[in-house]
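Title: Prediction job returns without error message
Component: structure pipeline
Severity: low
Priority: P3
Assignee: unassigned

Description:
Job completed but the reporter wants confirmation the result is attached to the right record. Sequence as submitted:
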Amino acid sequence: MSAETAGPHGPMDWRTPGQAWCPRASVRAMSGELIIEPFRPALAPAFTRLNRQWIERLFTIEPADEKVLSDPEGAVIVPGGQIFFARVGEETVGTAAAMVHSPGVFELAKMAVTPAYQRRGVGQRLGQAVIEFARSAGADRLFLLTNSRLALAIRLYERLGFALGPLPPDTGYGRADVYMELGLGNPPVGRPPRAGGGAVP
Protein backbone atom coordinates (compact mmCIF):
# COMPACT_ATOMS: atom_id res chain seq x y z
CA MET A 1 0.00 0.00 0.00
CA SER A 2 1.28 3.47 -0.86
CA ALA A 3 1.44 7.60 -0.02
CA GLU A 4 10.25 12.36 -13.02
CA THR A 5 12.31 9.72 -14.53
CA ALA A 6 11.85 8.05 -17.89
CA GLY A 7 10.86 9.45 -21.23
CA PRO A 8 11.24 13.23 -21.47
CA HIS A 9 13.03 13.43 -18.14
CA GLY A 10 16.10 11.48 -19.16
CA PRO A 11 17.65 8.23 -20.42
CA MET A 12 17.14 4.70 -19.23
CA ASP A 13 20.03 2.35 -18.63
CA TRP A 14 20.34 -1.39 -18.23
CA ARG A 15 21.35 -2.46 -14.74
CA THR A 16 21.92 -6.22 -14.81
CA PRO A 17 21.02 -9.01 -17.25
CA GLY A 18 17.43 -10.14 -16.77
CA GLN A 19 16.36 -6.95 -15.02
CA ALA A 20 13.97 -4.43 -16.53
CA TRP A 21 15.06 -0.99 -17.61
CA CYS A 22 15.72 1.32 -14.70
CA PRO A 23 15.55 5.13 -14.82
CA ARG A 24 18.64 7.23 -14.25
CA ALA A 25 17.15 10.67 -14.73
CA SER A 26 17.82 13.74 -12.66
CA VAL A 27 16.56 17.23 -12.02
CA ARG A 28 17.75 20.11 -9.89
CA ALA A 29 15.92 20.02 -6.55
CA MET A 30 16.49 22.33 -3.61
CA SER A 31 20.21 22.37 -2.82
CA GLY A 32 21.28 19.41 -4.96
CA GLU A 33 20.50 17.16 -7.89
CA LEU A 34 17.65 14.68 -7.47
CA ILE A 35 18.55 11.20 -8.72
CA ILE A 36 16.16 8.25 -9.01
CA GLU A 37 17.99 4.97 -8.61
CA PRO A 38 16.98 1.32 -8.17
CA PHE A 39 17.48 -0.93 -5.18
CA ARG A 40 20.79 -1.81 -3.64
CA PRO A 41 21.09 -3.44 -0.22
CA ALA A 42 22.70 -0.40 1.38
CA LEU A 43 19.50 1.59 0.74
CA ALA A 44 17.10 -0.95 2.29
CA PRO A 45 17.13 0.74 5.73
CA ALA A 46 16.01 4.02 4.14
CA PHE A 47 13.03 2.26 2.52
CA THR A 48 11.98 0.90 5.90
CA ARG A 49 12.63 4.15 7.80
CA LEU A 50 10.76 6.45 5.41
CA ASN A 51 7.71 4.21 5.28
CA ARG A 52 7.57 3.62 9.02
CA GLN A 53 7.72 7.37 9.60
CA TRP A 54 4.68 8.26 7.54
CA ILE A 55 2.59 5.21 8.45
CA GLU A 56 3.19 5.60 12.19
CA ARG A 57 2.45 9.33 11.95
CA LEU A 58 -0.96 8.83 10.33
CA PHE A 59 -2.00 5.23 10.89
CA THR A 60 -0.71 2.02 12.48
CA ILE A 61 1.83 -0.47 11.17
CA GLU A 62 -0.08 -3.58 10.08
CA PRO A 63 1.14 -7.16 9.51
CA ALA A 64 1.17 -6.62 5.73
CA ASP A 65 3.42 -3.58 6.26
CA GLU A 66 5.73 -5.49 8.54
CA LYS A 67 6.17 -8.28 6.02
CA VAL A 68 7.53 -5.84 3.43
CA LEU A 69 9.39 -3.42 5.70
CA SER A 70 11.22 -6.12 7.63
CA ASP A 71 12.64 -7.68 4.46
CA PRO A 72 12.25 -5.40 1.43
CA GLU A 73 14.68 -7.39 -0.69
CA GLY A 74 12.92 -10.68 -0.03
CA ALA A 75 9.41 -9.24 -0.32
CA VAL A 76 9.92 -7.02 -3.39
CA ILE A 77 13.15 -7.70 -5.28
CA VAL A 78 13.38 -11.49 -5.17
CA PRO A 79 9.87 -12.06 -6.64
CA GLY A 80 10.77 -9.78 -9.58
CA GLY A 81 9.85 -6.30 -8.39
CA GLN A 82 11.92 -3.19 -7.84
CA ILE A 83 12.35 -0.46 -5.25
CA PHE A 84 13.25 3.05 -6.36
CA PHE A 85 14.95 5.71 -4.28
CA ALA A 86 14.98 9.47 -4.72
CA ARG A 87 18.34 10.79 -3.56
CA VAL A 88 19.95 14.18 -3.20
CA GLY A 89 23.65 13.74 -2.58
CA GLU A 90 23.95 11.08 0.11
CA GLU A 91 20.44 11.71 1.44
CA THR A 92 17.49 9.48 0.52
CA VAL A 93 14.42 11.72 0.33
CA GLY A 94 11.83 9.34 -1.11
CA THR A 95 11.09 5.79 -2.15
CA ALA A 96 8.47 3.64 -3.89
CA ALA A 97 8.13 -0.03 -4.78
CA ALA A 98 6.93 -1.94 -7.83
CA MET A 99 5.65 -5.21 -6.37
CA VAL A 100 4.67 -8.31 -8.34
CA HIS A 101 1.09 -9.13 -7.41
CA SER A 102 0.14 -11.82 -9.93
CA PRO A 103 1.06 -12.68 -13.56
CA GLY A 104 0.80 -9.45 -15.54
CA VAL A 105 -0.19 -7.38 -12.51
CA PHE A 106 2.06 -5.12 -10.43
CA GLU A 107 1.30 -2.96 -7.41
CA LEU A 108 2.65 0.54 -6.77
CA ALA A 109 3.33 0.30 -3.05
CA LYS A 110 5.15 1.89 -0.14
CA MET A 111 5.62 5.35 -1.63
CA ALA A 112 7.09 7.77 0.90
CA VAL A 113 8.67 11.23 0.54
CA THR A 114 10.27 13.23 3.37
CA PRO A 115 8.22 16.31 4.34
CA ALA A 116 10.89 18.76 3.15
CA TYR A 117 10.70 17.32 -0.39
CA GLN A 118 6.95 16.90 -0.71
CA ARG A 119 5.14 18.88 -3.44
CA ARG A 120 8.42 19.21 -5.37
CA GLY A 121 7.81 16.50 -7.98
CA VAL A 122 9.61 13.72 -6.11
CA GLY A 123 6.50 11.53 -5.87
CA GLN A 124 5.82 12.11 -9.57
CA ARG A 125 9.32 10.94 -10.46
CA LEU A 126 9.07 7.86 -8.26
CA GLY A 127 5.63 6.99 -9.64
CA GLN A 128 6.86 7.26 -13.20
CA ALA A 129 9.79 4.99 -12.37
CA VAL A 130 7.44 2.33 -11.04
CA ILE A 131 5.17 2.64 -14.10
CA GLU A 132 8.07 2.27 -16.53
CA PHE A 133 9.48 -0.70 -14.64
CA ALA A 134 6.13 -2.53 -14.58
CA ARG A 135 5.49 -1.80 -18.26
CA SER A 136 8.94 -2.97 -19.36
CA ALA A 137 8.52 -6.10 -17.21
CA GLY A 138 5.48 -6.97 -19.35
CA ALA A 139 2.70 -6.08 -16.91
CA ASP A 140 -0.65 -5.09 -18.42
CA ARG A 141 -1.98 -3.52 -15.21
CA LEU A 142 -0.67 -1.56 -12.24
CA PHE A 143 -2.79 -0.89 -9.16
CA LEU A 144 -2.44 0.77 -5.78
CA LEU A 145 -4.26 0.93 -2.48
CA THR A 146 -4.47 4.09 -0.42
CA ASN A 147 -6.65 5.95 2.08
CA SER A 148 -9.20 8.66 1.33
CA ARG A 149 -7.54 10.95 3.91
CA LEU A 150 -4.48 11.23 1.63
CA ALA A 151 -6.00 13.72 -0.80
CA LEU A 152 -2.67 15.03 -2.13
CA ALA A 153 -1.46 11.49 -2.82
CA ILE A 154 -4.67 10.64 -4.67
CA ARG A 155 -4.27 13.72 -6.87
CA LEU A 156 -0.71 12.63 -7.64
CA TYR A 157 -1.91 9.19 -8.69
CA GLU A 158 -4.54 10.76 -10.92
CA ARG A 159 -1.84 12.86 -12.61
CA LEU A 160 0.10 9.66 -13.22
CA GLY A 161 -2.95 8.24 -15.01
CA PHE A 162 -4.52 6.05 -12.32
CA ALA A 163 -8.31 5.86 -12.14
CA LEU A 164 -10.55 4.93 -9.22
CA GLY A 165 -11.98 1.43 -9.20
CA PRO A 166 -14.03 -0.77 -6.87
CA LEU A 167 -12.23 -1.70 -3.67
CA PRO A 168 -11.50 -5.46 -3.50
CA PRO A 169 -13.18 -7.27 -0.60
CA ASP A 170 -9.89 -8.27 1.06
CA THR A 171 -7.02 -5.84 0.56
CA GLY A 172 -4.87 -7.03 3.44
CA TYR A 173 -4.85 -3.52 4.94
CA GLY A 174 -7.33 -2.15 7.46
CA ARG A 175 -6.63 1.43 6.38
CA ALA A 176 -7.13 0.83 2.64
CA ASP A 177 -10.40 2.36 1.42
CA VAL A 178 -9.33 3.55 -2.06
CA TYR A 179 -8.35 1.36 -5.04
CA MET A 180 -6.82 2.84 -8.20
CA GLU A 181 -5.66 1.18 -11.41
CA LEU A 182 -3.62 2.02 -14.51
CA GLY A 183 -3.57 0.05 -17.76
CA LEU A 184 -0.06 -0.30 -19.19
CA GLY A 185 -0.83 -1.25 -22.79
CA ASN A 186 0.67 -4.74 -22.71
CA PRO A 187 -1.53 -7.73 -23.67
CA PRO A 188 -2.88 -9.47 -20.54
CA VAL A 189 -0.90 -12.59 -19.66
CA GLY A 190 -2.33 -15.66 -21.36
CA ARG A 191 -4.40 -13.69 -23.88
CA PRO A 192 -3.21 -13.25 -27.49
CA PRO A 193 -2.93 -9.73 -28.91
CA ARG A 194 -5.18 -8.49 -31.66
CA ALA A 195 -3.71 -8.34 -35.13
CA GLY A 196 -3.81 -4.56 -34.90
CA GLY A 197 -2.46 -4.46 -31.35
CA GLY A 198 -4.09 -4.54 -27.94
CA ALA A 199 -5.68 -7.34 -25.99
CA VAL A 200 -8.55 -9.56 -27.04
CA PRO A 201 -11.66 -8.41 -25.13
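Comment from assignee: result matches the submitted record. Residues 4-29, 191-201 have pLDDT under 50 and may be disordered.
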